[in-house]
Amino acid sequence: MKIHMAVPKHKNQSANIKTLSVIETEINNINRIALSVDCVIFGFDENKLKVLLIRSDLKKFQGLWSLLGDLVAPDEELDSAANRILKERTGLDDVYLEQVKTFGALNRHPAGRVISVVYYSLINIQHHKLKILDNELHWHDVNDITELAFDHKQILDSSYEQLQRRVQEHPLAFSLLPKKFSLRELQNVYEAILDTKMDRRNFRKKFFAMDFLVDIEQMEQDVPHRPGKLYNFNYNKYEKKKKKWVGIDF
Amino acid sequence: MKIHMAVPKHKNQSANIKTLSVIETEINNINRIALSVDCVIFGFDENKLKVLLIRSDLKKFQGLWSLLGDLVAPDEELDSAANRILKERTGLDDVYLEQVKTFGALNRHPAGRVISVVYYSLINIQHHKLKILDNELHWHDVNDITELAFDHKQILDSSYEQLQRRVQEHPLAFSLLPKKFSLRELQNVYEAILDTKMDRRNFRKKFFAMDFLVDIEQMEQDVPHRPGKLYNFNYNKYEKKKKKWVGIDF
DNA sequence: CGCATAATGTGTTTATTTTACACATTAAAC
DNA sequence: GTTTAATGTGTAAAATAAACACATTATGCG
Hints:
Number of strands of chain A: 9
Oligomer: homodimer
Shape of chain A: globular
Largest interface: A-B, 95 and 96 residues
Radius of gyration of chain A: 22 Å
Largest sheet of chain A: 7 strands, mixed
């Protein structure tokens, strides 16, 4: 159970139905609300879940880190804006990107009313070295972050929770890995995201039973121990078989 | 796996960091984006899941039904706006209210760029007769709805999916019932929301095992059959015991 | 070259959860 | 008082999840 909110005193008129022209007027003259998109870009490296941050350039938040965001152009789709920000910062496209929710507290931005639609994304750090390092752009351990500019800590927490929920029902984790990966690497990703340890044998059993892993008959190279087998994830097979779960499980 | 979007050609400048004053200027002069909140208000009656709709008053959508929404005032919190709309339309406060996501397609509103933050809510129809019936406000069977004004069908679908997911992990269903309810009524709510049939014995076993139901030692009155026992839901106990699930389950 | 090291790869048993399923009981309706 | 229709209850089978140990293989080092 999440939200039981009191009703604001703020307004309590009876339902007033607006005509199109009234709405047009309000849009053009009355409302002064800016729209931005913030991206929570998760990565995975050294067996840890990372998030991409820049140094905030606002005096008010001097020294603090912040998420990647930008205002949305009036003729720009929300998803496009998220993709644009990701592309501008990382050079990446064609990655998993999902809306989390929208943050709109009155005082969240010092410049005025800015509401922010938040997206998260997962990218493979190894395969996409950052090319633009403005504002000290770099990866931070998710679990080391205690404070961020704006309400970005809250945004990060929400996004991380959503990631944790989603990764348990959808094969997101593969976005963080190279196309070929070992089972140990896969398990490391899950352990990092869910912040837990799993039994290796049960983990393998579970994934093999799902039958989405393709044994590509190759072994790891240049690892300082016995090499493991490498696998691909078969997205087509997953799409065909993904389950619809109906149950009650508080 | 949900979204694999191509990057828009639209913009591709390198990351340009904005100063506060540039942002202020953009907010005040450039962006012309209006913000609204739409509420998907679910109810339950005659063993069916219902949603509250009004007749659209826009020519473009003549005859179509639409969700309850309104523009957000510049000095109004998003949650407050959702609560206000609910209160204006139903007279209700202190109900479960949750943000779903934000819809912002360029062409979604004929009056211009309006992005809409969507909330859903669950209310007990029996205990809150509608007082304001402007625009033919009334309850519709969720499963009978095929077309709505704007992108409201898509919004309804998203909200319904979120409701279905959430109700399986949180005790939302009780918002749709009176404080005292029978197990059959509870099961009817779940069957309506999840659009499925469940085994009565297993359902009872499951809920009693959770140990959140309080037997209030009363029986149903005025039912045309053997009366069932009545129960309360113990929210305090739930809050203390609610589980954190870690697993993988595609 | 061989030995120590460290990670891979594999099965079985037990416990828990879920599903399937049938009959006696109670109050209302006639 | 007989019929009706829903409540209330238990058990067995199946599926899923959890716990757990040892042999194998390549590397690294002496």
